[in-house]
Amino acid sequence: MMKGTILVNAYADMPSLTEQASRLKEEFTKAGAKVSVVKNDDYSALCAKRGLLTKDYGDFVVYLDKDKYLARILEKTGIRLFNRAAAIETCDDKMITHVALSGVVPMPETLPAPLCYTNNAVIKPEEADKVISVLGLPVVVKESFGSRGKGVYLARTKEELLSLMNVLKGKPVLYQKFVEESAGRDMRIIVIGGKCFAAMERRSDADFRSNIDLGGKGYAVTPPDEYVALAEKAATALGLDYCGVDLLYGKDGPLLAEVNSNAFFREAERVTGRNVARAYVARVLDVISSKNVREGL
Ligand SMILES: Nc1ncnc2c1ncn2[C@@H]1O[C@H](COP(=O)(O)OP(=O)(O)O)[C@@H](O)[C@H]1O
Ligand SMILES: [Mg+2]
Fold first, then answer.
1. What is the pTM of this model?
2. Is there a single domain that holds both residue 236 and residue 97?
3. Average pLDDT, the chain
4. 80 and 129 fall within a common domain
5. pLDDT attached to residue 143
6. What is the Å distance from ligand 1's center to 257 Cα?
7. Pocket lining: 27 vs ligand 1, CB cutoff 6 Å
8. Residues 23 and 36 reside in one and the same domain
9. From the CB of 186, is ligand 1 less than 6 Å away?
10. Is 294 domain-assigned?
11. Do residues 211 and 94 both lie within one domain?
């Protein structure tokens, strides 16, 4: 019997995460695999002296977290992570994702804010002018590490931009062209094993951000070929087994906003009727069993 681990964060107790883990566990059990849910604060898992695992994580880990340290330690022991540690790290940082995908898929024009290591720095009005001269107004400001719409802002004026720049200066941030045609809506495509598995449009009447957590609603859609191709290309380029790709409706076609290595699938399952958890589980078991065959296990 195949055995594995679902890894979750010790400090995150949102129902969406608990539900994600339990849906996957349910589908693993149906597929005849045994998995346990483990948190990333289990120090007993590590033997500090040798840096080796003393805990048996099984044949694979479905890593529903972004803790890059434990991810790397686990991979170093030879266990296969879903997603792989490098892919999770790339997706966690929106600017790194942008660099990794530039020249690969179309994205809105994006500038990284120069990293600032001191809280005493004052951002001058000329800095805002520089950003506006390239990206115009309004302009999107994003914390490079953020999710569920929380770290995404729209600056409508130079003053708003400058004040955001000053508030956020201690954090990695990017500036991005506002895709006006897409305000309040985007397309979320779930890609599993490099293939589009489910797609929904998300719409919000209240906000330019269409995230479900901020009141956006999901609607099943049949994505145009161009959208499918873009999402699959991004997922493959980043080496993701599973992800949710957020696409904006640009006037000349889709533009990639970000890639979520740990995308919650509840809304996508509800809206599309597709069994995302089962497909993800099938992908994991396929990869592991073909690996075992190759290695003669
Ligand atoms: N450049 C943009 N132009 C217009 N809307 C955007 C842009 N970038 C993001 N959005 C909107 O904001 C939402 C959140 O942005 P996203 O980059 O996906 O960050 P998060 O990780 O917080 O979901 C997107 O789903 C989309 O609705
Ligand atoms: Mg998003």
1. 0.96
2. yes
3. 94
4. no
5. 98
6. 6
7. no
8. yes
9. yes
10. no
11. yes
Domain of 85: which CATH number?
A: 3.40.50.20
Q: Which of 145, 178, 246, 262 has most ligand 1 atoms within 8 Å of CB, for mutation?
A: 246
Q: Which residue among 56, 89, 122 closes a domain?
A: 89
**Predicted confidence (pLDDT) per residue in 181-210, tens digit:** 999 999 999 999 999 999 999 999 999 999
Ligand 1, residue 260: give the atom nearest the CA.
21
Query: 32-81, pLDDT tens digit by residue?
Result: 999 999 999 877 666 555 556 667 899 999 999 999 999 998 998 889 99
Residues β-bridged to residue 146: none
Ligand 1 atom showing the smallest separation from residue 204 Cα:
27
Query: Residue 217 maps to which CATH number?
Result: 3.30.470.20
HEC-encoded secondary structure of the chain:
CCEEEEEECCCCCCHHHHHHHHHHHHHHHHCCCEEEEEECCCHHHEECCCCEECCCCCCEEEECCCCHHHHHHHHHCCCEEECCHHHHHHHHCHHHHHHHHCCCCCCCCEEECCCCCCCCCCCCHHHHHHHHHHHCCCEEEEECCCCCCCCEEEECCHHHHHHHHHHHCCCCEEEEECCHHHCCEEEEEEEECCEEEEEEEEECCCCCCCCHHHCCEEEECCCCHHHHHHHHHHHHHCCCCEEEEEEEEECCEEEEEEEECCCCCHHHHHHHCCCHHHHHHHHHHHHHHHHHHHCCC
pLDDT attached to residue 118: 84
Based on the fold, state whether residues 97 and 209 are members of the same structural domain: yes
State whether the beta carbon of 210 lies less than 6 angstroms from ligand 1: yes
> Which residue range(s) make up the domain with 256?
90-105+182-281
Residue nearest to ligand 1 atom 12, measured at CA: 209
